[in-house]
Structure formats: C-alpha cells, structure tokens
Amino acid sequence: MSDLDSEDADESGEAVGDIGEYEGDRNSEGQRHGFGKARLPNGDTYEGEYEYGLRSGHGTYRFKNGALYTGYYLQNEKHGKGVFFYPDGSKYAGDWVHDQKQGYGEYLYANGDTYTGEWANNKRHGQGTYVYKDTGSKYVGCWVNGIQDGPAELIHLNHRFKGRFLNGKPLGHGKFIFDIGCEQHGEYIQPVQEKDEEEEEEEPQLPLEPIWKVSEITKITPWSPHDEELLGPREVAEAAVTEEGGDHPVSATGGEGEERREEEVNQSQEDEETTDLGG
Q1: What secondary structure, in 3-state letters, does the chain show?
Q2: Measured distance CA(40)–CA(90) in Å, rounded
Q3: Residue 65: HSE in the Cβ half-sphere, 13 Å Cα cutoff
Q4: How far apart are the C-alpha atoms of 18 and 30, rounded to whole Å?
Q5: Distance in angstroms (rounded) separating the CA atoms of residues 84 and 62
Q6: pTM score, two decimals?
Q7: At what angle do helices 256-278 and 228-242 cross, to 10 degrees?
Q8: Which residues, 6 or more positions from 5, have their beta carbon under 8 angstroms from its beta carbon?
C-alpha cells in the first residue's frame, strides 16, 4: 500500500494571507502571533500557535474530509514530531521535515499492516520493520524509496529467510532457517526472459519471479545478511559443482564433513573480522 494513498489534504488555505475567521493573539502589526483559533473558507480549522501570521509551534489542524494532524509546525509546514490521522483509518506518528515524513516514524495502514522505521521524502527509506497483519509475517531490513531493497530478514511463523532483496524481491545468496534446527542454503536466481520473435517489441513483458536454487542443508550456523561476501563464493562454487547432477541438489552431510564445514566458517569469520579491523 502506498504511504500517500490517504494524504490528499491541503493546508495551504492560510498561506495566501489573513483569510477566514480568526480568534486569538496578534502582534503589533496585526499578524496572527501567539495562540489562536482559525476557521478557513474551505471548512478546515486550526487551533494552535502562530508566528508572524504563519502556523509555527504546536497545533491541531482538522480537515473537512475527516483527516487530522496534531503536532509541530514551522512556517505553515509540518515540521518536528506529529501525528496524522487519515480519513480511511490509517495513521502516521513520527518525524516531519518541511511537510514530509522524514526521520523515524510508525505508519498504521488501513488494512492493519504496520511499518516502523526510517523515512525520507514521504517514503519508507533506510532500516525498518513491516508487519503483515493477515499472516503475522514481518520484513526486517533495508528500504529504498519505499521498496524492500538490501540486506533483510523475512520472518514467518516457523521459519525465516535471511538474504538480500532487490526491487522488492529476494535475489542472490541467502538461507532459510527452520525452527526444527536446520538451514537450507542457496541462491535466488533471476530467470532470463526469452523473447518470442512473433511478439511485438513494443509490448512490455512482466518480469519473471526469482527462482530458489538449493546448494546444501546444514545445522544452524551463525550468519547475517551482511555476511554475503563471506558465504557467497563458497556457495557459488558448491552450486557449480552440484549443478552437474541436477537443477535442485540437496545434500545433508554430517560427522567429519560437518565439523570441517564449521571450521571453515569459523576461519572465514576470523579472516573477515581481521579484514574489518584492518580496513
């Protein structure tokens, strides 16, 4: 759901001058200054602080369509902490900068979903958590311009996926972690879309869904989405070897092989820590 679906309200009524009904403080020049109440010609109302004729400070703006904003203003723009209640029942509570959601905030959507995290230019941007009400699943990770993009974890009822997302879809190396105590390592691969010579080139084709390719199954191992550089080369090599035997290889090894794999992971982690400290 778009973060702007409900935000069609316009607070520009007072920007054109001292219009509408006003009751409150004024300065020596007759400007609205201090605390006051205003009713605009379009039916909106504002009650709060003014500075030199503009909404500045804390106030509450009620729109005729049922929306309501209560929080801080700076020169007629929402700026600082504030809560916006939308007509469809959704709500945003958090930081505003020059009339835009920016900083940290929580959005409750009309369908019950929630997003808590960072914002920029009215969009989910940075680190944040999106919870899907219907399933209880949640996405914890990076966002870019409102889209899931970057290292993340997608958590379900009895398993979760750790990896990277691109344009809202998982892509590249990752793993599924199951509550029964095992992990399935692999890679999401973007299929190559074959073009039909008979189809018109002007007709756009929908992108194909990424395909999950399994490389191995192991017991629980410490890892995070940020460790893609650590596990990526090894999994790519294993996928290349096993690919000769089939498209969906699954191996479950134990005993000495499992111990060797743990030693390799531990040594790789030590090497990565040394590199991080040196860089």
Answers
A1: CCCCCCCCCCCHHHHHCCCCEEEEEECCCCCEEEEEEEECCCCCEEEEEEECCEEEEEEEEECCCCCEEEEEEECCEEEEEEEEECCCCCEEEEEEECCEEEEEEEEECCCCCEEEEEEECCEEEEEEEEECCCCCCEEEEEEECCEEEEEEEEECCCEEEEEEEECCEECEEEEEEECCCEEEEEEEECCCCCCCCCCCCCCCCCCCCCEEEEEEEEECCCCCHHHHHHHHHHHHHHHHHHHHHCCCCCCECCCHHHHHHHHHHHHHHHHHHHHHHHC
A2: 25
A3: 13
A4: 10
A5: 10
A6: 0.73
A7: 140
A8: 88, 90
Do residues 44 and 61 lie in contact, with contact meaning Cβ atoms separated by under 8 Å?
A: yes
Q: What residues form DSSP beta bridges with 195?
A: none
Q: What is the pLDDT along the chain (279 residues), one digit of tens a residue?
A: 455 444 445 676 565 556 889 999 999 999 999 999 999 999 999 999 999 999 999 999 999 999 999 999 999 999 999 999 999 999 999 999 999 999 999 999 999 999 999 999 999 999 999 999 999 999 999 999 999 999 999 999 999 999 999 999 999 999 999 999 999 999 999 988 776 655 555 566 677 899 999 999 999 887 555 454 434 444 444 433 333 333 433 333 333 343 444 444 344 444 433 333 333
Q: Name the residue with tokens 């992990």.
A: 183
Give the phi and the psi of residue 220 in degrees, each rounded to 5: -60, 130
